[in-house]
Write a structure and sequence with these properties.
- By secondary structure, this protein is α+β, with helices and mostly antiparallel strands.
- It folds into three domains: 100 residues, 3-Layer(aba) Sandwich (Rossmann fold); 183 residues, D-amino Acid Aminotransferase, Chain A, domain 1 (2-Layer Sandwich), CATH 3.30.470.20; 75 residues, Alpha-Beta Complex (Aldehyde Oxidoreductase, domain 3).
- It has ten helices and 18 strands.
- The strands form four sheets. Strands 13-12-9-10-11-14-18-16 form an eight-stranded antiparallel β-sheet.
- β10 and β11 form a beta hairpin.
């Protein structure tokens, strides 16, 4: 198998999936967690952990090193841009000129993250979405301000929002919609899609940020009519915006009513919820086949238990000593395992919990209980 590089705010899920598919992996991210380094043959930092921001200069330095030196004398086939890059089309384009990009092209990402282009397409094709304005509404009650270049929900603000300067072209205002936040995880080839499944998303308030992404649960059942509508929307967006590889479509569901929120044109966190049959090419192999050869999986995934992931955020400042790091490493279902010596400020992501069950509610309960136990353990010994 060739060597590929995976880059993201946290690259662990991609690195593990690629290693499971037999690839030699180079991971570029902010954290360098122990399981990320275990899955990768090499790790390169591309930003400070507490910033939750990718540093463009570090990305370019890492990609140039890989393009020039390869890994263990072998060339690197290309790199996959994950979370944190959806709002950085210029950086993706610059990186693609150094090392081949395996994913949606930067020009397509740029159009997709242009609110006028994205919501204009939805409107022209009568596809459902909460009302959007490109300028602040006269009466801000019931509206959200969003940044099309943001990720993870950290950019979403309720009215009244703080506006120290006029909104940029990638800011927009969206009418708040009731319902359940959901997503569809799919693989695209620019012409069609293969939907892996549908997920319930977990969001939580952090200070002035009302909708921070905290995890996902899936696959969850969706009525045939709704599933077909979401799949048709994903296909229409794939054709219009030339999507390739693993992607996700975020939407609100209120009964039988849908409201499209955004598309993430890169491997989403929900990719780790889907198990592939033993001995068959996995999710990263499917990503490469779709990007490089235009091939989509020919059969649906077999039935499986419902899986869930939950990002655990610090409730107080934590200094992770050796015993605490050992407890985390031994914690059942824990991923993104930090190493001893790391410090976490309030609201910093510490690690990710996983759980499975026969219903979304069962999984959600297990994740909530696990999060509380883990935080209490860390805080008690802090």
């Amino acid at each position: 198998m060739p060597t590929i590089a995976v880059a993201a705010i946290s690259a662990r899920a991609m690195a593990e999936a690629a290693a499971s598919d037999g690839f030699k992996v180079v991971a570029l991210d902010l954290f360098g967690d122990t399981d990320t380094r275990r899955a990768a043959s090499r790790w390169l930092p591309i930003g400070a952990p507490g910033s939750l921001q990718i540093d463009g200069a570090s990305v370019m330095a890492a990609l140039r090193t890989l393009a020039q030196e390869g890994v263990d004398g072998e060339p690197v086939l290309g790199w996959i841009a994950g979370s944190g890059f959806e709002g950085e089309p210029d950086l993706i384009e610059e990186g693609a000129a150094v090392l081949p990009l395996i994913g949606t092209a930067p020009a397509a990402v740029r159009r997709l993250r242009d609110p006028a282009a994205f919501f204009g397409f939805l409107s022209a094709h009568v596809l459902p979405f909460p009302q959007v304005l490109l300028q602040p509404p006269e009466d801000p009650a019931g509206w959200l301000m969003k940044d099309a270049h943001g990720c993870g929900g950290w950019h979403v603000r309720h009215a009244p929002w703080s506006m120290d300067e006029p909104p940029s072209p990638h800011h927009y205002f969206q009418r708040e919609m009731a319902g359940l936040p959901m997503s569809a995880t799919f693989i695209a080839n620019g012409r069609d899609v293969h939907v892996l499944g549908f997920n319930e998303q977990s969001v939580r308030r952090f200070g002035t940020r009302p909708y921070v992404f905290c995890g996902a649960i899936g696959p969850v059942p969706l009525a045939d009519g709704l599933a077909s509508r979401v799949t048709d929307i994903a296909r229409a967006l794939t054709v219009e915006f030339d999507l390739h590889g693993l992607c996700s479509l975020d939407f609100m569901r209120d009964g039988d009513t849908l409201g499209v929120l955004e598309v993430n044109p890169r491997p989403p966190a929900s990719m780790s919820l889907y198990r592939w049959p033993e001995g068959t090419p996995g999710v990263m192999q499917a990503h490469l086949r779709a990007c490089l050869h235009g091939e989509l999986p020919s059969t649906p995934l077999p039935a499986q238990d419902i899986e869930g992931i939950e990002i655990v955020f610090a409730r107080q400042a934590i200094e992770l000593d050796g015993p605490a790091a050992d407890r985390l490493a031994a914690w059942p279902g824990l991923r993104d395992v930090p190493a001893a010596g790391q410090r976490f400020d309030i609201d910093d992501p510490v690690c990710t919990l996983s759980a499975s069950g026969t219903s979304a509610q069962e999984v959600r309960t297990r994740l909530n209980e696990g999060r509380e136990r883990l935080l209490q353990s860390l805080e008690t010994h802090a």
